[in-house]
């Protein structure tokens, strides 16, 4: 899988990952702000819950930071939003795996519970999907701007024939000898 920065940024697909990044970023910002408003301890692992997820001030800070990152990327847009979404999504999924093994241990400084792990997996996959939409695929339609940029020679061959080219093609076909199949 290779992401390409030369992909066009002025297409309708950019709206998908911009809106996706903004919504996910706002959810993370809301969760982080609710954590700060509840006056949690920084490294507490006593299971305080906000919106069904256990949290502490450190996790609230991380949530606010990633929420701001996603919102800023959405505001900037273009390939940056897509790349940030993919990167943040991968980090969320990796965090889910790491914290799955840290539940119940002293190293669980972010106070992750099983609901946090599931949230991390789901948020990561969602954000990655928004980032990869239109950029990473083997089956893009041939009218997709990403496909046209990746396959310029084939896109040129598949481009509709303009009128002057059609006239030349017709004139050239008129000069070809007729094929006669009257000999059996």
UniProtKB/TrEMBL annotation:
<feature type="transmembrane region" description="Helical">
    <location>
        <begin position="16"/>
        <end position="37"/>
    </location>
</feature>
<dbReference type="Pfam" id="PF14325">
    <property type="entry name" value="DUF4383"/>
</dbReference>
<feature type="transmembrane region" description="Helical">
    <location>
        <begin position="84"/>
        <end position="104"/>
    </location>
</feature>
<keyword id="KW-0812">Transmembrane</keyword>
<keyword id="KW-0472">Membrane</keyword>
<keyword id="KW-1133">Transmembrane helix</keyword>
<feature type="transmembrane region" description="Helical">
    <location>
        <begin position="58"/>
        <end position="78"/>
    </location>
</feature>
<protein>
    <submittedName>
        <fullName>DUF4383 domain-containing protein</fullName>
    </submittedName>
</protein>
<feature type="transmembrane region" description="Helical">
    <location>
        <begin position="116"/>
        <end position="136"/>
    </location>
</feature>
